[in-house]
UniProtKB/TrEMBL annotation:
UniProt name for this protein: Phosphoribosylglycinamide formyltransferase
Swiss-Prot/TrEMBL keywords: Purine biosynthesis, Transferase
Domain of life the protein comes from: Bacteria
Pathway(s) of this molecule: Purine metabolism; IMP biosynthesis via de novo pathway; N(2)-formyl-N(1)-(5-phospho-D-ribosyl)glycinamide from N(1)-(5-phospho-D-ribosyl)glycinamide (10-formyl THF route): step 1/1
PROSITE patterns named in the record: GART
EC numbers: 2.1.2.2
Length: 202
């Protein structure tokens, strides 16, 4: 299976996927990353892709006359690599109708909170501020909402009294990277069905 990964930042989830494919080999893992896309340049995530010898593309919202034109450009750039699965690994933009029309049902996101709690850009900060005793991460299919698509898997992390946002987020990311590698591999190798809000991996 062909994967395109979308990033906006440090790309440690991308790196976990790159390492998993390199370690197991594309056949055994079930997939290989064929390109990495971003909404901004100058980020470590793109540097990681370049170090792995992968093609990259950048679609910046401000380079387009409208959000719809950006969405169309992102769709085209992603489609050029003919992915079977698209993975948002810290991609910080909400895709539009065209992207979802093209990749809905095979577009996966990882979110650093236990959805449906704490969706959006500051999931870790919101869980901490709320006083949650457990936090975690969610890998889900992307639908037309924000972090609302069918949940594939979740991982739980305890919140410690001394945690600040970055300490908690780092602890979540340790679980998240393993969860994402496991889920993407299983989706790619076994195939899956989405039945309403249920995801069945064969
Ligand atoms: C991840 O925790 C992801 O869930 C969140 O931002 C973080 C990205 O980390 N949206 P990285 O870029 O993969 O290191």
């Amino acid at each position: 299976k062909r994967l395109v990964v979308l990033v906006s930042g440090s790309g440690t989830n991308l790196q976990a996927l790159l390492d998993a494919v390199a370690e197991a080999g594309p056949e055994a893992y079930g997939a290989e990353i064929v390109a990495v896309g971003a909404d901004r340049d100058g980020i470590e995530g793109l540097a990681r892709a370049e170090r792995a010898g992968l093609p990259t593309f950048v679609c910046k919202v401000k380079d387009y006359g409208s959000r719809e034109e950006w969405d169309a450009a992102l769709t085209r750039a992603t489609a050029a690599y003919e992915p079977d699965l698209v993975v948002s690994a810290g991609f910080m933009k909400i895709v539009g109708k065209e992207f979802l029309a093209r990749f809905g049902g095979r577009f996966v996101n990882t979110h650093p909170a236990l959805l449906p709690s704490f969706p959006g850009t500051h999931g870790v900060r919101d869980a901490l501020a709320y006083g949650a005793k457990v936090a975690g991460c969610t890998v889900h299919f992307v639908d037309d909402g924000v972090d609302t698509g069918p949940i594939i898997a979740q991982g739980v992390v305890e919140v410690r009294d001394e945690d600040d946002e970055s300490a908690l987020h780092e602890r979540i990311k340790e679980v998240e990277r393993r969860l994402l590698v496991d889920v993407v591999g299983r989706l790619a190798r076994n195939g899956y069905r989405i039945e309403g809000r249920k995801v069945v991996i064969q």
